[in-house]
Amino acid sequence: MNTNPVADRTVTRLGGRGIILLVVVVTAVLTLSLLMNDLVRVLYVFDGAYNIKADLVSTTGVPANLPGDSANTESYYWSVLLSSHQELQLPKTLQALAIGVTTLTFVSGALTIFLLCRRLWTGRTFAASAAVGLLAVSGLTLVTAWLAPWLRHRADQLALDAMGYATSGTSRWVELPYYDAWSVDPAVLVLGVVLGLTALVYLGARGLQRDTEGLI
Q1: Most C-beta atoms within 10 A of its C-beta, which of 63, 70, 95, 108?
Q2: Order of all β-strands in the sheet with 172-175
Q3: What are φ and ψ of residue 83, in 5° steps?
Q4: Dihedral, CA of residue 138, residue 142, residue 144 and residue 147, to nearest 10
């Protein structure tokens, strides 16, 4: 069966561009949805009550006395929700910043996808600007993986201090969940590493493309 190479290339090119357009549309819709959702979250942070999920600690435990408790099974309270309608402007601002940093990271990722799609559309598959964009987003993602949890934890520390609940020295006290300098968002951290590796592979492929073009 005879085929027309020109027609085949045209169909392939149109199919590829259709996929690129689909990626652009989906990315744009998801990005706009994220922006609207995070805007609502920020508004709620400032207008709603400030809530903290804290650990409830006691030297003897805090029995829950649930139906079904027996000599062999016991139930205890181990966490508590602390809610405050105080102003708490600084903690709320830090929480909003944590949301903003995360939003900025994902919006930057979306812009990088748009850049890659533009390069694919124009045939400049391995442009240096795309690799630089990936590296920049990777760095921002890695920073966000550490910074956002720190902002949230610091906000909860300040809010807990302002609420006045006992944090030690009594029969019952509350503590924030464990946190240290190495506490990061694992999903965001992995995403940052993957983006960084992708950028390195992209740069390597760009070098191979230049070498191949030099042999032709």
Answers
A1: 95
A2: 79-84, 50-58, 172-175
A3: -130, 135
A4: -150
